[in-house]
Amino acid sequence: MQLTEQEVIRREKLTKLRELGIDPYPAALYPVDTTSKSIKTDYKEGKKVIVAGRLMRKKIQGKASFAALQDSEGRVQLYFNRDEICPEDDHSKYNDIFKKLTDLGDIIGVEGELFTTQVGEKTVLVKDFTILCKSLRPLPLPKVDPDGKVHDEFNDPELRYRQRYVDLIVNPSVKQTFIKRTKITNSIRQFFNDREYLEVETPILQPIPGGASARPFLTHHNALNIPLYLRIANELYLKRLIVGGFDGVYEFSKDFRNEGMDRTHNPEFTVMELYVAYKDYNWMMDMTEQLLEKVAIDANDTSKVTVGKNEIEFKAPYPRVPILEAIKEHTGYDVAGMDEVELREVGKKLGLEVDETMGVGKLIDEIFGEKCEHLYIQPTFITDYPKEMSPLTKQHRDNPALTERFELMVNGKELANCYSELNDAIDQRERFEEQLKLSAKGDDEAMFIDQDFIRALEYGMPPTAGIGIGIDRLVMLMTNNSSIQEVLFFPQMRPEKKALELSDNEKIIFEILKKKQEMPLANLKAEADLSNKAWDKSIKALGKMGVLKVTKTETDLIAALKE
């Protein structure tokens, strides 16, 4: 492992601490009795405190120094005075340990008394301190120059998501996003628990990936010697519990879909699903309005939420628009009653990519998704989907071609999906068989037939309303984040690229190109100022490593770093 100069220095300090008989990673409990926040809110001059956290600033001024300590609730200023810490003749704890052997990022414990500085800042006068964890890597702390410009900010998305632990340390606003995420899930739980719905857990590994139309992840169970799937939804198991006699069940579930990744999709995501017996989708619309209004107020102290340039009002009621009317309004095409061939033609006229594997349901979904969905900024229930789009949904009571289903659109994206659940076992089997035909045509997202679920329905499931709410998207809305990666602690990422091990000559060429991105090969050779042998060897090596590419133009050879 190649260490930077700073990492080498920190390891040398680690060794010196141990030579002084100081354990830089002590095992004993540290008796913290306060936090940075409570120091400020419950301030009392001269109060004795014990606080611990990460050293984030250190300004040494001879016998006295100021520092900043960051804990889970914020920062507090520390004042180190040599004579307070070292009242006897031995001043090594201040002069050697604090001044020379501590670094920014070290975790320390402090015992002291509270006082207010001349400029009015509440501060801990340090009487003693303990090193609790020596940090071996320097933090990427931002610096402000005399002109007020900020440098070295830790704001590269790939680094932030890959090293979320650093992101949380140096970017306080990130921590607030995840605190708010917990407030949101707690608000939902409270809403359901007050209504005596039961929170449950259902299998993540499933023999059949049911409950949604999506491409699953496949794995293998060695002991049973069977293939298993990571769940794409928990719907069918929750409905089995309704069959079993529970009137209301809900689950915050991790679901997995082996599909694309973008700013609103992650292959692993969180969904809350709720099923309530003896209800329908009209009741669920009313309930959803109440729930989301409460969540917005609990998270932001108002039902109005700013998302990008839009102000979204979560106060009930929300408009209710049938999907076929939405398509007619926004495309000019009345697609009600159209078959596959007619819908495919409409799709082509609208400039959509359609193919022979797409049935009626997928075609309507594509038309709405591409031409209508983004237009619904304020919360809007899109209702009454065609039967082909909803194989688990009860037939509409007034129109047998439709189903009793809604999707809630907010800020141009689906936030929730709800059905009056299909409880006719014979109808359910026929719907599954239609999905099987789509699968045979090449639709790799078509549903499997879940024979055990049909058997459960044959025992009888009461009329039931069910809803799924995307928690990640809900948190994005409530925290004004446009990327799903911002609301996941550890979003899925490509494997980290290995650090390049370059020779000195290769480094010279690499650093020149790093600054200029691309330049004529002849100019690069002149600036590198290497012998012909060293130049040829280095250029070939960089090419083999996939670092450098050379392209030919009409007049020159251009060298550039590969992305």
Structure report:
This protein is α+β, with helices and mostly antiparallel strands and 563 residues long. The chain folds into three domains: 5-139, Nucleic acid-binding proteins (OB fold (Dihydrolipoamide Acetyltransferase, E2P), Beta Barrel), CATH 2.40.50; 174-204 and 231-319 and 378-486, Bira Bifunctional Protein, Domain 2 (BirA Bifunctional Protein, domain 2, 2-Layer Sandwich); 504-561, Arc Repressor Mutant, subunit A (Orthogonal Bundle), CATH 1.10.10. It is built from 18 helices and 23 strands.
Number of domains: 3
Helix proportion of residues, in percent? 25-40%
Shape designation: globular
Outline the low-pLDDT stretches.
Answer: none
Proportion of β residues? 15-25%
Structural class: alpha+beta
Largest sheet: 8 strands, mixed
Separate helix tally: 18
CATH class assignment of the largest domain = Alpha Beta
CATH homolog superfamily of the largest domain: Bira Bifunctional Protein, Domain 2
Q: Compute the CA-based radius of gyration.
A: 31 Å
Strand order of the largest sheet: 8-12-13-20-19-18-17-16
Give the beta-strand count: 23
CATH topology of the largest domain: BirA Bifunctional Protein, domain 2
Terminal Cα separation, in Å?
24 Å
GO biological process, one term: lysyl-tRNA aminoacylation
Protein name: Lysine--tRNA ligase
Family: Belongs to the class-II aminoacyl-tRNA synthetase family.
Pfam family, one: tRNA-synt_2
